[in-house]
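Readers outside the structure-tokenisation community will struggle with the description of the input data as it stands. I therefore recommend that a typical entry be quoted early in the introduction. An entry of this sort, consisting of the sequence and the corresponding backbone structure tokens, reads as follows:
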Amino acid sequence: MRLSLLTRLSISAVAAGLLIPTPVAASSADLIGLERELSTLVAARSGEYGIAALDLRDGSTLAVNGDIPFPMASTIKIAIAAAYLAKVDQGQRSLGDTILGRPATKVLELMIVRSDNRAADQVLADVGGPVAVQQWLASQRITGIRVDRTIAQLLRERGHLADSRDVATPVGMIALLQKLDSGTVLTAQSRAFLLGLMSRCATGTRRIRALLPAGTPVEDKTGTLDGVTNDVGFITMPDGRRVAVAVFARGGRDHQPVIAAVSRAIYDRFADSARNALAVFMRLR
């Protein structure tokens, strides 16, 4: 179906409006200190970094350049998968369906675990294209994420570092992660399926996961373009608390060690806060 010019302009305006960021401030003295630590860490490296983290248990937050849009690259595949699974939950699709002759579960697995771009565009086409994913995000009141092109279109074009299309703020990305984890936008079955795929992500061993203690549960999705290196997802702390993390990087070089160091600093601070809270509780007994 061809859209009228007015409809296309209306959709574009909505998409542009979704980039209005929701600024976030660190919610405790400890996290203010961590923000300063992270700001110092990334300032010493080339390139520009955007960081956000959210404790999914108590809502504690931090951000560095949290309201600045960065190219999403393949991290958008989380939203594409969620839009498909939402249709499953509504009875419009099934995980038993096929997409271009392959089981939907296999295509989703390739998209998330292997970051297969062809599989991503197949799922994207099945849900109705970039406009449909943008509409799904809007229906869930998730702001700070803009979806404009297919992966093939994105890869054919240049100028990713300064592009205003297909971008997300770190705060917008952790808002998406929080919604997915909360169970408010997907059923328990669909949530478990998506997180299961993210736990098997095969493209990010040198990013969020790289410096975390062995055995730390992580569910993530990477994104990479020329000059762009991203990783977003969930880290589970020793006490079972889960923290949503988004780290975007553009320009400069050697982003992966910085993403790993940022993720370890976030892990250490949240893990320490849990240990300190337990120590206080034990003293009060």
